[in-house]
Amino acid sequence: MKIAVSGKGGVGKTTLSSLLARHWAREGFRVLAVDADPDANLGSALGIDTTGIVPVAKMEDLIAERTGVQPGTVGGFFKMNPKVDDLPEALGREKDGVRVLIMGTVKKGGGGCVCPESVLLKALVSHLVLYEKDAVIMDMEAGIEHLGRGTAQGVDRLVIVVEPGRRSIETAAKVRQLTQDIGLHKVAAVGSKVRNKKEEEFLHANLAGIPIVGILPFSEEIANADLENRPPNLDDPEINAAVKKIAAALEE
User: Fold this and answer.
1) 131, CA 20 to 30 Å: which among 3, 22, 196, 201?
2) Distance between CA 15 and CA 202 in Å, rounded?
3) CATH number for the domain harbouring residue 200
C-alpha cells in the first residue's frame, strides 16, 4: 500500500499518519513512514527519537555524491536519476515495525525548482511509491510538491485530512484540484477532530466529489498525547475503532 496524507496545517494529518502506520505494523506489515512535511514531527508522533537526524533535503554531501553537483551551485550538469534505493534503510530509524524517514523540503525556487535537492527528493519518492515493497505512508504538507505525474500513478490513495471548518474545506478543494492536474484521481478524505453528528454532516455536505472513508473524532487522549509529547494510545477504544475503520476502507 502506498498512502499519501495531505491537508491544512493543524488538522491532524500527522496524527492520522502515525496511527495508521502503527496499526498496520501491528497487523504484520513492514511500514515505512515518510515525513515530507517541513515541520517534521512524525517521528515524535510515532514515539521514535529523531534527535540528530538531518532531513534528506539538507544532506548536502549526500546530494552532491548522488547528483554530482553541490547544492546551491549555479549552472552545471547533474544526474537526473540518482541512486536512492539504499536510502530508506540507511537513513531511516525504526521502532515496533515502523521505520521513519525524514525527507524535508526544498525551500527555494518554488515547487518546480530543478536543482540537485529537488531531483534527489523526487527520485526518492518515485522509488518509495513505485518500487518499495513495504507499506508506505507519506505525511505531506498541504501541497503535493513531492508527487509528480509519474509517481502519482503509483499512489493507492491520497487522503486529505479535513476538520469541520471552511478553511479546511477550501484547502481540501485546492489539493483535489492539484491531484487532478497530475492525474491522481484516487482521492479520499478523513474527517478529523469531529465532535458531534452535526460536524460530521457538515463535512459530508461540503466535500463534494471527495468520498469520506472515515472519521477520527476529537479525542482527549490525542490532545493529552500531544501535550505530553508521546504517541496516542492506540488501544484507546474510541481511537482504535476509528483507525480500524479507516484502515479497512483504505485496504479495500
Assistant:
1) 22
2) 22
3) 3.40.50.300
Domain limits at 85?
2-251
Least confident range from 19-33, 84-98, 128-142: namely 128-142
Question: C-alpha distances in angstroms, 216 versus 19, 48, 182, 243, 247?
Answer: 10, 23, 28, 7, 12
Mind listing the pLDDT tens digit for each residue in 35-79? Answer: 988 777 899 999 999 888 999 989 999 999 999 988 876 666 778
Residues 6+ apart with CB under 8 A from 162: 7, 8, 11, 168, 169, 171, 172, 189, 190, 191, 192, 203, 207
pTM: 0.90
CA-CA distance, 22 to 193, in Å (whole number)? 19
- Give the total number of structural domains in the chain: 1
